[in-house]
């Protein structure tokens, strides 16, 4: 399955223009283990990997590499689109915002954690008395001394502590 209709040569032309507009000039290279053919077919990962090496006008070296897509042309296109987006963001003065965003762990890498309100089964903004009553009921049921799971009890305790700190204005 092709992810792009753009042939390798057309994407290379667009990448070349992007690098010129960015001020990279000729300080970049593209590597591909198996050169693309006219009738591109899906390939094993080691044959479809495309790597772009370039040097920013600031002198910083960068490398982007992917084999996520089934054909080298698709992987080159993905790299070009990424570089063009970065170039446009930098040109608009948004580079620092992008760095802040990408310095965070990827959302898919973070385990999902329920909110303290979900853990205690109360609505956001519930009064402290309601939060405390929900905590007591859950703690009684899930306390390790009553045969409950220590990890669940700890989660309930943390949720209660967080909401009490929030109610006291300490968070």
Question: Can you tell me about this structure?
Answer:
The chain is mostly helical and 171 residues long. It folds into two domains: 8-107; 116-167, Helix Hairpins (Orthogonal Bundle). The protein has seven helices and three strands. It has helices at residues 8-22, 45-48, 72-91, 95-103, 116-120, 128-142, 150-167, and strands at residues 28-32, 50-55, 61-66. It has a three-stranded antiparallel beta sheet with strand order 1-2-3, with helices on one face. A hairpin with a 5-residue loop joins strand 2 and strand 3 (61-66). Helix 1 runs parallel beside helix 3 (72-91) and helix 6 packs antiparallel against helix 7 (150-167). The longest helix is centred in the middle third of the chain and has 20 residues, at 72-91. The model is unreliable at 106-110 (pLDDT under 50).
Bulk shape: elongated
Gyration radius over CA? 26 Å
Number of domains: 2
Low-confidence stretches: 106-110
Strand percentage: 5-15%
With helices defined by DSSP (H or I, 4 residues minimum), what is the helix count?
7
Sheet with the most strands, sense and barrel status: 3 strands, antiparallel
Distance between the termini: 51 Å
H-E string: HEHEEHHHHH
Total E-strand runs: 3
Overall pLDDT level: 85
Structural class: mainly alpha
Tell me the strand order in the biggest sheet. Answer: 1-2-3
Helix content: 40-55%
